[in-house]
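For the sake of transparency, this paper describes our internal protein records without simplification. The tokens are whole numbers drawn from a learned vocabulary of local backbone shapes. One such record is reproduced below, unchanged from the form in which we store it.

. . .
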Amino acid sequence: MEARSTLVAPPEDGADFIVVANRLPVDRDTSGETPSWRTSPGGLVTGVAPVMQTHKGAWIGWAGVADEEFDPFDIDGMHLVPVPLSSEEVRRYYEGFSNATLWPLYHDVIVPPEFHRTWWNSYRTVNRRFAEAVARTASEGATVWVHDYQLQLVPYLLRGMRPDVRIGFFNHIPFPPWEIFAQLPWRAQILRGLLGADLIGFQRPADAQNFRRAVRICLGLPSSGNLVKIPAAEDPASELGDTTTITRTAEASAFPISIDTEHLAQLARDPQICARAKEIRAELGNPETILLGVDRMDYTKGIRHRLKAYGELFNDGVLDPGTVTLVQIATPSRERIDQYQQIRTDVELAVGRINGEYSGMGHPVIHYFHHSYPRDEMTALYIAADVMLVTALRDGMNLVAKEYVACQTDDDGVLVLSEFAGAAEQLTQAVMVNPHDISGLKSRIAAAVTMDPGEKRARMRAMRESLAEEDVRAWSDAFLTRLQQTDRAGQAEAAALMRTDQHPTDADAQPDSAPGYSSPEDIDITALAAADRLLVGLDFDGVIAPLVDNPMDAAPLPASAAAAEALAADPNTVVGYISGRNLSVLKQLSNAPEGAIFIGSHGVESDFSAIGGEDIGAVDGRRSGGNPAAGTYASGPSNDEQALLDELDAAFTDIRTRTPEEGHGLLRIERKPLGRTFHTRGCSDNRTAFYATELEALAKRLGQLRFLTGHEMFEFALRHQTKGNGLERMIRQTGATAALYIGDDRTDEDAFKKLRTYPEDFPRLSIKVGPAGTAAEVRLQSPDDVAVFLGRLAAARAGR
């Protein structure tokens, strides 16, 4: 453990909001007579600049110049506080421990990490220097946001110096599984360093889960959901020094970073940049297809794999050297490190070999550039490119993929995206690839080159719509909002954890962004209690029934069943169940009260007969006049639909038989009247990833089916319905004047979003159970909390 730090008094004129990163957002310009600074804008600057400008902000980091010290200065509305580094510290702390130890370790050991005590000692020294700079700069009660793997000890050190500040940390790169992280000799110190933060952000849910698991195994600290309990002995701000008193909690959650989507879209519409894009195509010989790769020269980016697949496509005769060219930009990076020198050599040899074998006179099949380009030129390249290749072997996010999508304002272009990049979890309509599978990579590149224009537009439009909502400002807002909530939420969670001896693991959890957990006793139910006619919409699994290994063993908690019975006893309250289960199984397991209504198969099946509505049936969206919520009913699949179900059954059987029984876990196929669900509960991570790839390909081949992904399940539906459509039908059929919906899964997000569309004079409440990002207004932790909440609501309705 790092030595406890000496308390530092807040300065009289300190900063209220501080960003801490290895580098300041500036470069030293020595081209003129007098050296000056120029800003080097990036995604992080865009995300935090508005906060720095509306608060008294400061940015603390290294100026990029070794062996020199600089006074704090202001530029472009930002107050910058330089932290000095010597040449030896740059070699040991930055090039050594940060980039030859942590970087390869955190990226799946693609190259072996090096472990040197002198590097570690330098890392500790520099982290302490950064923490001291923050302690001297932050005002009392300031918010401090520390960034990335170079500064993982800063939160712990800073908390010891300044326990009054609120500390957030964001890790921009992956966090490895324990089996890899355990190699690090200083693993406990790194974990304790990060736990000094109130909120620790990661790019992907899996990264946050890896961190929490490492904390449990290495430090023995229990976690509940996304929260880790910090005993006094582990808290640098505590004087108690014991291992039983809980002083606070730290939250580890996913907050995937994004880009300035609107700014890039504006650049992509700029007439001069559009003209430059046409010039680029002309300069390249106006080929039919331009492929583009934009990467740092780094062994994690999969450039060698990309070039190998590309060259073989010419050798196989799939691509025509006269009509296709690849522009590969590989910007210089960490050139004094041996592995980076080797990757450059390998890439340039491959480029030379492929060009030598397949290029024509004046028509190289690869245009290779080992330097960076200004933003306007990069935008023009994005516009000019027909296919973007992102083949990272492991990447925290990969913002290049998002930048390419943002620049496709005509909804043109195809993104080929590695499933090992964090961006794959948001840009799900990209052509996904496993870059280690060269044959699969080749087939996906070929498919991208020949893709139908209609499919290209549909895929790109969906990705651009997603990015429009999830830009870099939304990312920073989500993180900082959650950071401001951590104190209150953490205190409540700590009190709850101290009342129980149970320390649930989070093997199945996915971290959330906001809102934080609420107590079921604290949720405002005034409007729902007073409503003239209330619809209570409930998901089944994970909401009123705890998740179990065997789905047919699921049963509602007795308290939830009693509350539902009490609610249904009120003539002006209707209880409705909305589930992914098929209708007959849902009715069998739900122990529903008399008068309940049902939506099954994620909105496809329904039974409103208890209220005199439509009889049991299945929604036929083809007969709805374009309004899924107004669909009429058909008892079963048509002949064409049955043929599709038969094809699904055969495909599922084939996919399953191509993998050995070992690793199947509780794999099963659920046959619904109008769809099929592939359940992967208990399967290994690698097996689940394989099934996801195969089923996604199947969904694209059978394009008329709706493909859903949820908690350990993949569903194909014949008719395009959602839980949101189902909730809307329930509201209409019941004549409800207010509505509640409680769900726990990704498929419930449609219902949460649907409720948001109702006017302000329509009382409604959406509740998410458990972790993961959500559109719901309120979050409860477990089905037990749901039971308490429903009991409160039933009592309030009865007492009107």
The chain is about 40% helix and 20% strand. The longest strand covers residues 138-147. The radius of gyration is 28 Å.
